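Budget justification, computational time. The allocation requested in the original proposal was used primarily to generate structure tokens for proteins on the priority list. As evidence of use, we reproduce two of the resulting records. The first is shown immediately below.
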Amino acid sequence: MRRRYDVRWRLTGVATRRAGWVADSDGLSPIALLNGHWPMVHPTSPVPQSVSEWLEKSRADVFFETSSLDPHSGQPAIDHIKAALNHGAHVVSANKGPVVHAYDILSSLARERDKKFLCESTVMDGVPIFAMFPSGLPATELRGFSGVLNSTTNVVFTEVEKGMSFEDAIKRAQALGIAETDPSYDLDGWDSAVKVVALTIILMGIPVKLDQVQRTGIREISAEKIRSVRAAGMRYKLVCRAARRGAGVDCTVRPELLLAGDPLANLEGTSSAIHFDLDVFGLSMVEHNPGIDATAYGLLADFIRAVRPA
């Protein structure tokens, strides 16, 4: 990466629930950490007790925020990002909560500090949705979008169609690393609703709230119903939609019965897709069976956008 992008880096801080706040401005070994070898705590070197102390001790230039999503408050990620920007670091986030609850505040703070707040991995992993619009689609108006944006529900529908029970299909999604121990946010449509709000705020410029999304999850659809419609050539998908209505927007997340000819109906496993309705043309993007490395790529891409020379 140094040769290709003229970027040199070192890892100076890691924070996890298990390890706490670990920082060393001289650099930590990523390989050692991945193998469970954490640095010893020196008695003369106090352990950071807050994100601000940790940022200061690590002397961070770029902060990656990947804490778990709280769709109702966006915390503690919002406070983490504010602390990083006030410290003077660029912020790269995979957390949708801060976008939904504090995008304008955080973006303004980033501009004031002459730093970047980037969040490509929040929707469709590493697919460059947010980066595409300002650079690749200038002078267009986004009138709306539709898509299948939650991998967990897509895996559940796919596996149930093959004969798996609803519970085993959820375990399959968890084994793939795309579903949390408690998959409620996915199954009840919260993850999809948060993504709809994030897309609407950033790409359409409309400050929609999470409670304005008409949301229905997939729990009420029986395995028998999922398999019977599949045998008839149709498929259930949890579909996200947003459409401009005057100065506002209508947003929905709900299971829809799609005909086999619908592009969204053909998505398998962890694949996701989105269609943008622009004033000049329609544009569709499909992400085929991404894994956790796709999210990591989105973080890496934002890192390069943040730090590479202009």
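The second record produced under the same allocation is shown here.
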Amino acid sequence: MEILKVIVDWINDPDLNVPRIFWLHGQAGKGKSAIAHTIAMQYKNAGGLGSCFCFARDRLSERREEKMLSNIVRDLANCDPAFQRAVVGALKEDNTLKATNDVMQQWEKLLKPLSKVSGGRVGNVVVVIDALDESGPKESREHILEVLTKAASLPSNFRILLTSRPLADIMRVLYHVQHVKAVSLDKVPAERDIHMYVSKKLDDQPDIGAVEINEIVLRADGLFEWARLACEWIGSDTAGETVKERFYDLMVPTSREGTTLLDEMYVTVLKSVVVKREKPLARFRSLMRQILYTLEPLPMGALHAMRMHFPQEDDRFNVVLILNHMGSLLSGVTDHKSPIRLLHSSFHDFLTDQSRSGDYFVGESDIQADLAVVSLCVLYGGLCFNICGLESSFLLNSDVPDLAERVKAKIPSHLSYSSLFWAKHLEATKFDPTLAGHVKNILGNERILFWFEVLSLLGVLGNAVYALSSAARWSQVSK
């Protein structure tokens, strides 16, 4: 609550020399994204001009770092006619700006000139950039950090709220920049806010009173994500256990050394979900490996459809065996049409670090080869002539009135995913004759034309160039 007030005061500060950037940093689980999204929603509901852009680890394939500024410019143009006119003018002067992925060019020719339009506005322009640390490897954010160091040139009514974990490259660039107000969430007491949160989440549990709530808050030790997980787990409906018994299990001091409180919470939750026997653990690791290394989040049905093509028979199981019990750690579990996503990036870090996750460690193993095989098998069984049943081949896609509905009905998520990403998984593997046979089954006959058609219907026919070039390079190893 105190941080929200500090940020609101910073946004409304009339001082011409106020820092243009408020950088809120802190460790995973501290509530950075909750604060960022609260500010964005409050400002939007108040009718303010702004934009909110969020990075996400499970969307790295979209190369969102190249789209950040263009999306911000679009949002501002949609909110304000003056901005809109300025955007149109800039595009008339340089038509290449419509498609450029050059962040520095977007800054110099779009956002920086357009920001001058805000000079006559009453009120401030607020841009929220959440989770910069999840943009990918440090190389992916070099230009973004360079742009942020230039933000002092923005008009005095521009405000950029930035959140991230304190990664070395971000700290090195931003920490001592004069126009950046850096605030560490790790140093902000959160006990009162966590107490309010826990009280609200568990107010319908008769066995949890003031004493128990205080113990949960004490154990949370300032971590909102720990408190969320604890509330989800205590209030879950599992057979053979009472709410009070789950509370007591949570309060037992752990004997594991060298782990964080959040890791202990993950272990506690996973122990209740996945029994430590060989088959359940193997299935958990296999499914989580699929979820972590697919390049785009998929709904439960698509994950299951692809899993049925995994090369190893032990990997071909019904995903609900695991997913139905993972609601406190994954989103999309109860709504089968929504993509399955990790609820917090710290869970990814936990699973992929064997020293932290132990029996629940999820390594990359052969998942890229498996996903390449799976994608090619899905294409082999799913591609067909005129997949959407179009009455005429002489019409442009844009002239088919119900094309979007047909695509949605006829091209399921797992077929769409396989069409888009089989080559990316392929290039991440070593050459293998069996895998090469799967590639030939698609590219060596009429199915390549059916694949072109699917890409066209999805609006990404240009992706075929990259995919075919990548497959050609991969195949050269065999010669």
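A brief technical remark on that second record: The first helix runs from residue 2 to 12.
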